[in-house]
Amino acid sequence: MNTTDDPILTTTAAARLLGVATSTVQTWMESGAIASWKTPGGHRRTRLSAIQGLLERSPGQPSATVGQAIEAALSPASPPLSSLSPLSAEFSPRRAPAYPAGRDEATRLVALSASGLVDTPPEARFDRIVRLAAQVTGSPIALVSLLTSTRQWFKARVGLDAQETPREWAFCSHAILGGEPFVVEDAAADPRFRDNPLVQGDPKIRFYAGVPLRDPEGQALGTLCVIDREPRKLRSAELQALIDLADIASEEVSKK
């Protein structure tokens, strides 16, 4: 089984999926209760199938029962992990996506699922960030965007009524691939975006600037982005302010 079918998880991602502390997962890994290995840097890693196995054996139960699932996992009578069901389609990578995707897309989607942020109610901590992003860059639209395999969902937004768009339309799919801010100064003149429904129709995007939002393990779960309906450039101070706000948003993304 390759990484696309069975992504590699950090201890933090595994802990979020199980609903327990990272230190607890580390203890279980060290004891052999969760199959794992160490990287050359000494960090523990496991596979999604191992964590799904524990969740499958105590479906719908609170995290307090996970310890019982651990004991069940050690029983010789336990079913093989390979028979377990996968994540939902929204958090599983597409075989041939109509958008750019990185080699670690499967692991990124698991991390996004583990964050528990998608489809959650609005929160003041993110709403403040998008308001500030719009203000400091002079942009009419600002978004905290999270990218599943099927859609771009907005955790926070200002200047835009839509709650989500298809993933295929997302400028942010390009933004999460690199380590630097992704800027499109005139989308109507850019062959990658000029036929995009968000350029041809509402909100008639012409300018876009997005900075990846990363979890503690470095996975890009989405972006903080600003949008304008006119071609433009960001001044260096505006771009730095957007980067700083994205760093703050990343810290908030990492909180439960």
TrEMBL record:
GO MF, one example: DNA binding
CDD domains reported in the protein's UniProt record: HTH_MerR-trunc
Parts of the chain that traverse the membrane: none
InterPro entries assigned to the protein according to its UniProt record, in alphabetical order: DNA-bd_dom_put_sf, GAF, GAF-like_dom_sf, HTH_17, SinI_DNA-bd
Record domain GAF: where: 121-255
Pfam families, per database record: GAF, HTH_17
The protein, known as: GAF domain-containing protein
Naturally occurring in which organism (per UniProt): Pseudoduganella lutea
